[in-house]
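Chapter summary example.
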Amino acid sequence: MYPENNQAPIDYLNQIAPAPHKQKLSLRALIAIIVGIGLIIALFVAVVSALSGGSSSTSTNMQTLAARLQAMQEVTDKSQATIQSSNLRGTNSNLKIFLTNANHDIIAPLSANGIEIKKLDKAIVAKEKTDKITTDLENARLNAVFDDTYAREMAYKLTTVSLLMDQIYSHTKSTSMKDFLVKTDDNLQPIKTQLEAFNASAR
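The structure predicted for these 203 residues follows.
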């Protein structure tokens, strides 16, 4: 029936050989893959959200800085005639010049970051304008302690400006904004020191 070597034909052997079992993916492995993909997607979404939130926060801080500088300039303009000390009046004149320049110089870097100085968030502008410093200064004027209060309050406001600029500097990639922040902070510090010195001498 077969050739003398008694070997079955190759086709016959292939037919009777057991069919190779296809290795099936275990349920546990499938779940692990699905979970892994889910984690990767979640991580991607979290990173995108963080970057988007950081950008939004920096934009808000830039608008807050612009609104604060504008509000402070209004206060310095209104306060000049009320200040009694000639020394403090001189410091306030320097502060007015500083704020005038800062409010002018910030326009270009804001624009480079998609923010128009005349279109700042109305809520931010309103918050800065209604700062309690206005009420405190009016009470100080009525109680004849305007100069001391003014020096203290404006030194504090300049400190908040400096801290806000540090925060913006740490998060922005804008070269023009960073240049503005460095220059402005350099000009701010001597005036803040003068206000603090006046407040200290008044104690």
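To summarize the output: The two ends are 123 Å apart (CA to CA).
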